[in-house]
From TrEMBL:
Pathway: Amino-acid biosynthesis; L-proline biosynthesis; L-glutamate 5-semialdehyde from L-glutamate: step 1/2; Amino-acid biosynthesis; L-proline biosynthesis; L-glutamate 5-semialdehyde from L-glutamate: step 2/2. This is Delta-1-pyrroline-5-carboxylate synthase. Residues 32-290 form the Aspartate/glutamate/uridylate kinase domain. It comes from the Eukaryota. Can form homodimers/multimers. The gene is Aldh18a1. Its EC number is 1.2.1.41, 2.7.2.11.
Length: 758
């Protein structure tokens, strides 16, 4: 607790030795002292006359939030000239209208020319109003702000520099936000940036250089430079090939082509980069980002401090491997080469990977043992997740068998003709299967997922980015190495990439220009988070696996307990495990019902009673909190229904469209259930656990989808393909088919080529 004027406020434990900038974005959350530089384009309106009040209020709110967390915030602001220009124009118009009215005797105003206003006069007129606005806004958050106007002399004169330093430190000590600006009323006209090239000297000729000089002088941890562009691009923004640079390193200037400066202000992007590099060499981390975009300006500052992928981060530490953007481009290029291979060559890669899983069994299990030991020592994984993390000889053998199934079924996947139409004479149209593009698969605690998904991506000709949980790092590393070894036999090693950088899942979900489909494999919370974070990228998967088994009045006694036991107890953590057991009302207090309860007790399954089931019992189990619950453990809910129709309605209301089962000997009832339940998988007299790509004969699956577009249920090779249209003609033009043309549409269906079923 810190105190000032007897008012306590909570501070965060933020401290570090200054002198070296942060190496990674994830470390920015430890920044204690922060300078936020607001460019002219951020503070001013589009007409350059007046302030963008809504934007400014949002920035003040974010700065106040960070200040109240115990950080030391400083603002370097522009805007005095724009605010003064607005005031002076208003005064001139008012003055001219009065003179004109007196001269003409008419109250009606004519068009009046506004003289060109001198910038220093505008600054003098606008500075007090700008500061008053800041004070009014910060007061809403019980924060005091103080104004400091500086010139270049204040940094070059030793005594003035010490005075400035002392003033700023005293303001920060008193929990006051200093608002600093160049004294534009007295500064000389701008000069070329000739002195920005040295590391020891930087002149204050615009607010970029002022912010950099101030950041180093005050030993700040982070400088945030807000402008009207997303960050630093490798070529002028708006040009066709311009790409946003996520991390910029000293020495990368040669790879960047600078464009013109923004619509207002004195510095362009080149000046910002030079100032940022100067601050970086002084030990201050720098991020250049967009402070004007309406969708992100409301949280851009807090996002940067939280380490999110916003703008361009300046770092002195280059990563050992490629960036995730580079990996995405490598996967795209590698995937296209992979798709161009012959089907037999893709199958050969998968067969090789299957062999490596058994040949390198000892090395794989040794790496997996390290992961298990680390997870147990840290105690961060629940027992179901530890089971998923564990690999065994039998698991590897099953994996190899599944991969060989994928290889055998992949020979006629990419390039398969699914429709042929003769549009007109010598004009034939084909619809053929093609890969989706680049897949991002995010998975938790399941290293066996890596070779499965890799094999499906290879079979379907897709590039692949894999992001595994850190709890399986050793296992994932060796499995990815073996995958690349298999890919190398046909020179497509880059098609499958393992993301090992500190990239947050939320940041990966924003790479809409690199990724075509996201497939999450993990907890329902992970899937929900990814669905929420994905920006413009479709997500294939299911957020919950609330699977039902309905026991009908005509159910077989022998089948009921066997199917229920397998559905719930064989692997309770699986997404296709039974979670809600629906019992027909007529079966209550019958021997069959007693057998079901006895079996669940023997298997140590905790029972939760649905509202209707609880009403039939004198002493009931604990009543369920929600009928829409995925337990993922030896627990389940029992509820009572009056008919198969009511069972269907219950499933539609509380289910997750995953897998639902009916147990009955009545074929008519079973068919009604199969036709009316709107789920990805609907079974009759079979365990919910059959909802699986391997058990369906797909070899493996990338996941189970409950969406209604493209793929549904266990997703194998077919779900990773889309189509394109091929039209082969001979000098055909649409005008030939017009009313006065000489050709007619035929639209004849043509036979499909014979599929290779070997």
């Amino acid at each position: 607790i810190r105190c000032w004027s007897n008012i306590p406020f909570i501070t965060m434990p933020l401290s570090r030795a200054h002198g070296k900038s942060f190496a990674h974005r994830s470390e920015l959350k430890h920044a204690k002292r922060i300078v936020v530089k607001l460019g002219s384009a951020v503070v001013t309106r589009g007409d350059e006359c007046g302030l963008a009040l809504g934007r400014l209020a949002s920035i003040v709110e974010q700065v106040s939030m960070l200040q109240n967390q115990g950080r030391e915030m400083m603002i370097v602001t522009s805007g005095a000239v724009a605010f003064g220009k607005q005031r002076l124009r208003h005064e001139i118009l008012l003055s001219q209208s009065v003179r004109q009215a007196l001269h003409s005797g008419q109250s009606q105003l004519k068009d009046m020319a506004i003289p060109v206003l001198e910038a220093r006069a505008c600054a003098a007129a606008g500075q007090s109003g700008l500061m008053a606005l800041y004070e009014a806004m910060f007061t809403q958050y019980s924060i005091c702000a103080a104004q400091i106007l500086v010139t270049n002399l204040d940094f070059h004169d030793e005594q003035k520099r010490r005075n400035l330093n002392g003033t700023l430190h005293e303001l920060l000590r008193m929990n006051i936000v200093p608002i600093i600006n160049t004294n534009d009323a007295v500064v000389p006209p701008p000069e070329p940036n000739s002195d920005l090239q040295g590391v020891n000297v930087i002149s204050v000729k615009d607010n970029d250089s002022l912010a950099a000089r101030l950041a180093v002088e005050m030993k700040t941890d982070l400088l945030i430079v807000l402008s009207d562009v997303e960050g630093l691009f490798d070529s002028p923004p708006g040009s066709d090939d311009a790409k946003l640079i996520d991390i910029f390193y000293p020495g990368d200037q040669q790879s960047v082509t600078f464009g013109t400066k923004s619509r207002v202000g004195m510095g362009g992007m080149e000046a910002k980069v030079k100032a940022a590099l100067w601050a970086l060499q002084g030990g201050t981390s720098v991020v250049i980002a967009n402070g004007t975009h309406p969708k992100i300006s409301g949280h851009v500052i807090t996002d940067i401090v939280e380490g999110k992928k916003v703008g361009t981060f300046f770092s002195e530490v280059k990563p050992a491997g490629p960036t995730v953007e580079q990996q995405g481009e490598m996967a795209r290029a590698g995937g296209r080469t992979l798709a161009a291979l012959q089907p037999e060559q893709r199958a050969e890669i998968i067969y090789r990977l299957a062999d490596l899983l058994t040949d390198q069994r000892e090395e794989i299990l040794l790496a997996n043992k390290k992961d298990l030991e680390e997870a147990e020592n840290k105690g961060r994984l629940a027992l179901p997740l530890l089971k998923r993390l564990s690999l065994s000889t039998s698991k590897l053998n099953s994996l190899a068998i599944g991969l060989r199934q994928i290889a055998a079924s992949s020979r006629d996947s990419v390039g398969r003709v699914i429709r042929r139409t003769r549009i007109a004479k010598d004009l034939d149209l084909e619809q053929v299967t093609v890969p989706i593009g680049v897949l991002l698969v995010i998975f938790e605690s399941r290293p066996d997922c890596l070779p499965q998904v890799s094999a499906l991506a290879i079979a379907s000709g897709n590039g692949l980015l894999l992001k595994g949980g850190k709890e399986a790092a050793h296992s994932n590393q060796i499995l990815h190495h073996l995958t690349q070894e298999a890919l190398s036999i046909h020179g497509v090693k880059d098609a499958v990439q393992l993301v090992n950088t500190r990239e947050e899942v939320e940041d990966l979900c924003r790479l809409d220009k690199l990724i075509d489909l996201i497939i999450p494999r993990g907890s329902s919370q992970l899937v929900r988070n990814i669905q929420k974070a994905a920006k413009g990228i479709p997500v294939m998967g299911h957020s919950e696996g609330i699977c039902h088994v309905y026991v009908d009045t005509d159910a077989s006694v022998e089948k009921v307990t066997r199917i229920i036991r397998d559905s719930k107890c064989e692997y309770p953590a699986a997404c296709n495990a039974l979670e809600t057991l629906l019992i027909h009302r007529d079966l209550l207090r019958t021997p069959l019902f007693d057998q079901i309860i006895d079996m669940l007790r023997v298997e140590q399954v905790k029972i939760h009673a649905g509202p209707r089931f609880a009403s039939y019992l004198t002493f009931s189990p604990s009543e369920v909190k929600s009928l829409r619950t995925e337990y993922g453990d030896l627990e389940c809910c029992i509820e009572v229904v009056d008919s198969v129709q009511e069972a269907v309605e219950h499933i539609h209301k509380y289910g997750s469209s995953h897998t639902d089962v009916i147990i009955t000997e009545n074929e008519k009832t079973a068919e009604f259930f199969l036709q009316h339940v709107d789920s990805a998988c609907v079974f009759w007299n079979a365990s919910t656990r059959f909802s699986d790509g391997y058990r369906f004969g797909l070899g493996a699956e990338v996941g189970i989808s409950t969406s209604r577009i493209h793929a549904r249920g266990p997703v194998g090779i077919e779900g990773l393909l889309t189509t394109k249209w091929l039209l082969r003609g001979d000098n055909h033009v649409v005008s030939d088919f017009s009313e006065h043309g000489n050709m007619k549409y035929l639209h004849e269906s043509l036979p499909l080529p014979q599929r290779n079923t070997n």
